[in-house]
Amino acid sequence: MFEKVALIGVTGAVGRIMLRLLEEREFPAKSYKFLASARSAGKTLTFNGGQHTIEELTHDCFDGCDLVIASTPDDIAAEYLPSAVKAGATVIDESGYWRMDPAVALVIPEVNPQAALDATGIIASPNCSTTQMVVALKALHDASPIRRVIVSTYQAVSGAGTQGSLDLVAGSKAHLEGDDYAYQAFAHPIAFNAIPQIGSEKSDGYTSEELKMVYETRKILGDESIQINPTCVRIPVANCHSESITVETERPISPTEARELFAKFPGIVVNDDLATGQYPLPSNCTDQDEVFVGRIRRDISHENGLSFWCVSDNLRKGAATNAIQIAELIAAHRFSKAGTK
Amino acid sequence: MFEKVALIGVTGAVGRIMLRLLEEREFPAKSYKFLASARSAGKTLTFNGGQHTIEELTHDCFDGCDLVIASTPDDIAAEYLPSAVKAGATVIDESGYWRMDPAVALVIPEVNPQAALDATGIIASPNCSTTQMVVALKALHDASPIRRVIVSTYQAVSGAGTQGSLDLVAGSKAHLEGDDYAYQAFAHPIAFNAIPQIGSEKSDGYTSEELKMVYETRKILGDESIQINPTCVRIPVANCHSESITVETERPISPTEARELFAKFPGIVVNDDLATGQYPLPSNCTDQDEVFVGRIRRDISHENGLSFWCVSDNLRKGAATNAIQIAELIAAHRFSKAGTK
Predict the structure, then answer these.
(1) Per-residue pLDDT tens for A91-142?
(2) Annotated binding site of B, which residues?
(3) Where in chain A do CATH 3.30.360.10 domains reside?
(4) Alpha carbon A333 to chain centroid distance?
(5) Which residues are CB-neighbours of A145 under 8 A, at least 6 positions away?
(6) Rounded-to-integer distance, Cα A166 and Cα A230, Å
(7) Is residue A225 classed exposed, middle or buried when 0-12, 13-18 and 19+ CB atoms within 10 A define those classes?
(8) Is there a catalytic annotation at residue A128?
(9) Residue B312 and residue B237: Cα distance in Å, rounded?
(10) Looking at the DSSP assignment, which residues form a beta bridge with residue A269?
């Protein structure tokens, strides 16, 4: 059991879910410390039936903490997490800042658990759109190496934080009433629209969100040869990212084999019967911790191709759940080992 | 100038736009006949400033008509259009029924105009999701033959007819107020959701909408070797379909060359500057007749690949506009020829 767990970013969209998950899963910790920006410090929150005061995140607030889980913007993670490592804590970070650092482990417990167990510094949790895709890819990759991935995403506004969610509701209401609305989280109206840009422009005409799907996937699967072409699109869905994924594998994987590989892979739920209209939808995957897969079919344009539809709760498996699963993995390893000494 | 034009399906979502377009474009016709089902017969409509009575569609209502433009469900097109052909009319059909008939021309005026001019029977207008994609593909195909297409669509509810549009508004309002709503045009809630099924299940795990994109594209481009992998998804957008398209061409086409090819192709508007957030959106393409292209970039997963984002008004270029452009093409050819006799 962890002695003292520091949670950073408890007032954010992911942070609030993190608290709920730790309660539900009876996370093995003796005590907690709740950290946020100076703006939220002093406020109280309810956790495990008690009232707790939120403390301000500072460089010297990690004394005695053996685990830190952080859900913050990149710049906060950049500034404060090295102090947590120095204080001796195991640090799990949900931001994008540390993921591609060669000294940092980038981990999905179902995919590359050993990387978390071997880590000596920060352990990063991947970007939401990457995580659900890589869980599904790994199930196939173990059967036949993946050569190429073409993915188009249908991403929910909750990925743009609390303001993204507020914008969708307020913007939709205004639109239905014929009123204007000034969006804060989006550069274009998201209500009843589709915006083919998430993140900022990077190289080659791709966005930061798209290149995360390329580089994080290669790092997690430990295979720099996988070719990936992503298109990331924001759509007016409150929560859960959907992805249309086409893969080419070294040898053909039939839909029947793929269905079996997905079904037996930890953390994947197959929901696949087109004849009766069964496939994952954002509306039925929200508040779930798994990655849902359907529309599994032969890629009729390539003999080694396979296509499928993949949905997951981007705040859960795409963020909070994955971070907590990393912590649980470490706990199981560390404390069971200690127990057998 | 056409002597007498019969318009079938004038009360539907596409039919109403057809009337507006004929007015706006000063379509060359001396007189019109407005046809619909028995349910709508006897009602009146306003066209070119006058009031007109809608007549019932029957097998012998085409006497004296030299042009028929039909926007109806497949079964109506199947039953009545042969009678229009027998009566000697040029028949342009927007339904899906006749498109793949070998005796029928399937036409996009910017792509294969000669097929319309050579036609002796029905001339079909392609499915909305096909049309906008093929306009864009043709611009590339002329420079280097297209080998493979992978497309994921983001389709608007207006493609599901008037009831689809009503469902989105009513379902969204109900959802925002926490109420239930019984959807009529969709098997799942479309408000704030993404449904990866349009049309019915066909072969190989693909839907009817998806296979239309395969077979219609090959027929229009006259190239049965093009490999196409479509995923068709309905999203909560009122109007305009968006498509994430990746193509492989025989030789590589650079983004710079592609931008030039698109820009000079008739009917395409390039809107492409990621740095300043410029790309086509459903919200700014509605009520436009063109096909809009942006996010033009190298496919970083394939040396002969190119990716782009394509948006068009599915009721206009995807249906009404294309049908009327076919009629205008025939008029220009027939009546200018007559004039030079």
Answers:
(1) 999 999 999 999 999 999 999 999 999 999 899 999 999 999 999 999 999 9
(2) 11-14, 39-40, 99, 155, 158-159, 234, 314
(3) 130-313
(4) 22
(5) A223, A249, A250
(6) 27
(7) exposed
(8) yes
(9) 12
(10) A292
Q: How many CA atoms does the CB half-sphere of B259 hold within 13 Å?
A: 13
Start-end of CATH 3.40.50.720 domains in chain B? 2-126+319-340
Residue window 222-281, chain A: list those with CB within 8 Å of chain B. Answer: 227-229, 231, 233, 235-238, 242, 244, 246, 255, 274-275, 277, 279, 281
Task: Give the phi and the psi of residue B152 in degrees, each rounded to 5.
Answer: -120, 130
- Are B233 and A244 within 8 A, CB to CB? yes
Q: How many CB pairs (< 8 A) connect A and B?
A: 174
Of B196, B246, B275, the CB nearest to A229: B246
Fold classified for B2-126+319-340: Rossmann fold (3.40.50)
Q: Give the domain A130-313 fold.
A: Dihydrodipicolinate Reductase; domain 2 (3.30.360)
Look up residue A9 and give its two tokens.
């970013």
The DSSP secondary-structure symbol of A182 reads -
Phi, psi (degrees; rounded to nearest 5) at B221: -80, -10
- Give the tens place of pLDDT for each residue, A147-156: 999 999 999 9
Give span(s): CATH 3.30.360.10, chain B. Answer: 130-314
* Fold for the domain defined by B130-314: Dihydrodipicolinate Reductase; domain 2 (3.30.360)
ipTM above 0.95, yes or no: yes
Q: A30, exposed or middle or buried, with CB in 10 Å at 0-12, 13-18, 19+?
A: exposed
CA B30 to each of CA A37, B4, B64, B66, B327: distance values in angstroms, whole numbers, following the listed order: 73, 6, 12, 11, 14
Tokens of A152: 């188009």
